[in-house]
């Protein structure tokens, strides 16, 4: 997927600022500090002309009073504070204004830095939360690496774009203030300066437009690189076993080079702008001075102020253009995340609203699929068509069938990760579509075929679905799942860290640990997807016995999802899916005596077992 080309507009700027968390209050504070610094700088610079006039008059304040309106204004302002206007106090005031200006600029920079990093933190947290809360259908097309890139990289670029926009506004205000002040000194010289600035801006227009276009390219390059690295790191064992390090290196080389080329081009464009700014601005200043001396016959004190102002304008102009270039370079990230968050939030808004008026879901009769159909977005056919069956409460039900039969879709509908296209999924007589997905997730515990183990302590992971579980309840569930014995051998036992994806454990241990986590949750319905895929035969038989005991003594309702009949024969009831439809249902012993997929799969399993012996 290619990032949609971002177009500049006021509406998109507002939306991007809101995405970055740049509230009117924050923007006002940032601009307010810059305006205060501008005012103090104006005071210091405004005192230059009276100081030069004082020196030219040889300290004759009476003559200055008669000939200089600027000096009269200085005397009036000093009189307000009871201070006599003389060279010393005027110089001290000018120095104090510049000093205060530096203090304010320091405060503004510190505030901007801390605010920027705080906003990056909030945007990253908000993106992470939005990704985690979004329905399964909204996240189906998102690659892990691309999502990681958006949270880790693009969030920072988006916030920098928003903060740079405010800084750009402050720098533009300073530029306008200087031009306004110079206009009062000499309209002819200022007009020349304005023409020079306009020509310089027009000349740099192509560079700014290239930065804007490259902003989307760098988003795409970052996304592709992050997606590639995440995917290939995950499959590092496969690459090593195949011995194809050359393929990995070549693929990484191409993607990394593309990202580096785009990043380098953005920085080169910024340097190229600087290359033109300083010479052009110096040339404009010299031209303006020539006009002032030779054409306008400007007094020396005005020329002095003009020279100082023009020298000060050089870094301001460079800052304005640099901020504009940096903003345009990062705008693509801001727009991209605005679109992404809007998509995720709209998808989440389609969920039924969470309400405290709902009583917890309770299962007394059965989970019922009532004429359920589901079609994946963009798919030609339906994954499920007119599916109806029951999962009786307090019993073990097996959902079996060949690959592609629709079993995973049934699981996602039963766990409210997806909503039916047609029909209803009922808890007793209550339609799950009327409930917030969070209510369903508390009532249903799910153990996937590939167990997901997080980097936390064993005890924390086992209590993930029920944080208030006692240590006794955690240990009891671990024992039922056959995990207690190996947990106690870990350094620290239930307090032992699991490491990233549980890399300290074997595949079977991870599967039993994840099963224990689901058991701790104490849900109304326990769904196990191929629960014995990574267990040895002895552990598989123990798990089957434990599930049977739990159903009989604790009233558990269990749905076992499997491609084969290995655990299905231990169930009270089995449902066979083929081609997205219910092909058969009944007790396992009945299904083995009827012609169909179940009998064939059971016979193949029995033949394979006898050969193994």
Describe it:
This protein is α/β, with parallel strands linked by helices and 613 residues long. It contains 21 helices and ten strands. The strands form two sheets. It has a six-stranded mixed sheet, sandwiched between helices. A four-stranded antiparallel sheet has the order 2-1-4-5, with helices on one face. A hairpin with a 2-residue loop joins strand 9 and strand 10. The longest helix is centred in the middle third of the chain and has 51 residues, at 245-295. The chain is elongated, with a radius of gyration of 36 Å.
Short description:
The protein has 613 residues and is of the alpha/beta class.
List unreliable stretches of 5+ residues: none
Class derived from helix and strand content: alpha/beta
Taking the alpha carbons of the first and last residues, their distance comes to: 51 Å
Please give the share of residues in helix. Answer: 55-70%
The percent range for strand residues is: 5-15%
Q: Cα-atom Rg, whole angstroms?
A: 36 Å
Total helix count? 21
Question: What is the total tally of β strands?
Answer: 10
Strand order of the largest sheet: 6-7-8-3-9-10
Mean pLDDT: 82
Major sheet description: 6 strands, mixed
């Amino acid at each position: 997927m290619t990032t949609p080309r971002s177009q500049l507009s006021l509406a998109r700027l507002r939306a991007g600022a809101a995405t970055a968390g740049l509230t009117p209050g924050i923007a006002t504070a940032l601009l307010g500090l810059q305006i205060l610094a501008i005012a103090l700088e104006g005071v210091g610079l405004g005192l230059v002309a009276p100081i030069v006039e004082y020196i030219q008059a040889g300290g004759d304040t009476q003559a200055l009073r008669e000939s200089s309106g600027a000096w009269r204004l200085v005397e009036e302002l000093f009189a307000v504070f009871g201070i006599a206007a003389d060279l010393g106090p005027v110089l001290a005031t000018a120095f104090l204004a510049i000093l205060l200006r530096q203090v304010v600029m320091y405060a503004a920079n510190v505030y901007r830095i801390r605010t920027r990093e705080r906003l990056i933190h909030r945007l990253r947290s908000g993106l992470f939360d939005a990704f985690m809360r979004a329905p399964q259908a909204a996240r189906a097309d998102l690659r892990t690496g691309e999502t990681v890139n958006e949270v880790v990289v693009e969030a920072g670029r988006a916030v920098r774009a928003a903060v740079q926009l405010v800084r750009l506004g402050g720098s533009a205000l300073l530029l306008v203030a200087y031009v306004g002040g110079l206009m009062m000194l000499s309209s002819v010289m200022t007009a020349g300066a304005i023409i020079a600035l306009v020509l310089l801006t027009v000349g740099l227009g192509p560079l700014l437009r290239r930065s804007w276009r490259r902003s989307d390219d760098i988003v795409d390059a970052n996304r592709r690189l992050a997606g590639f690295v995440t995917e290939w790191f995950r499959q590092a064992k496969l690459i090593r076993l195949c011995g194809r390090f050359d393929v990995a290196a070549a693929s990484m080389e191409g993607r990394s080079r593309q990202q580096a080329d785009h990043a380098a081009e953005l920085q080169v464009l910024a340097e190229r702008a600087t290359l033109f700014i300083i010479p052009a601005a110096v040339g404009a200043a010299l031209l303006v001075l020539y006009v002032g001396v030779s054409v306008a016959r400007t007094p020396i004190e005005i020329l002095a102020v003009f020279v100082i102002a023009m020298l000060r304008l050089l870094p301001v102009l460079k800052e304005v253009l640099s901020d504009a270039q940096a903003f345009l370079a990062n705008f693509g990230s801001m727009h991209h995340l605005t679109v992404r968050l809007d998509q995720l939030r709209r998808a989440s808004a389609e969920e039924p609203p969470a309400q405290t008026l709902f009583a917890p879901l309770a299962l007394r009769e059965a989970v019922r699929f009532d004429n359920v159909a589901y079609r994946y977005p963009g798919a030609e056919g339906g994954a499920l068509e007119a599916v109806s069956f029951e999962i009786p409460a307090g019993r073990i039900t097996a959902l079996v069938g060949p690959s592609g039969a629709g079993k995973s879709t049934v699981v996602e509908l039963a766990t409210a990760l997806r909503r039916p296209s047609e029909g209803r999924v009922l808890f007793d007589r209550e339609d799950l579509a009327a409930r917030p997905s969070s209510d369903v997730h508390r009532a249903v515990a799910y153990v996937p075929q590939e167990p997901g183990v997080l980097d936390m302590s064993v005890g924390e992971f086992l209590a993930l679905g029920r944080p208030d579980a006692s240590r006794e309840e955690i240990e009891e569930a671990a024992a039922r799942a056959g995990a207690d014995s190996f947990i106690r051998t870990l350094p620290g036992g239930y307090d032992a860290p699991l490491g990233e994806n549980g890399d300290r454990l074997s595949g079977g241990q991870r599967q039993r640990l994840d099963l224990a986590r689901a058991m701790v949750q104490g849900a109304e319905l326990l769904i196990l997807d191929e629960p014995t895929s990574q267990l040895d035969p002895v552990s598989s038989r123990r798990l089957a016995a434990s599930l049977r005991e739990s159903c009989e003594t604790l009233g558990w309702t269990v749905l076992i999802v499997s491609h084969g009949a290995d655990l299905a024969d231990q169930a009270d009831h089995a449902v066979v899916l083929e081609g997205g439809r219910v092909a058969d249902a009944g007790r396992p012993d009945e299904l083995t005596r009827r012609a169909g997929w179940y009998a064939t799969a059971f016979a193949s399993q029995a033949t394979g077992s006898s050969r193994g012996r």
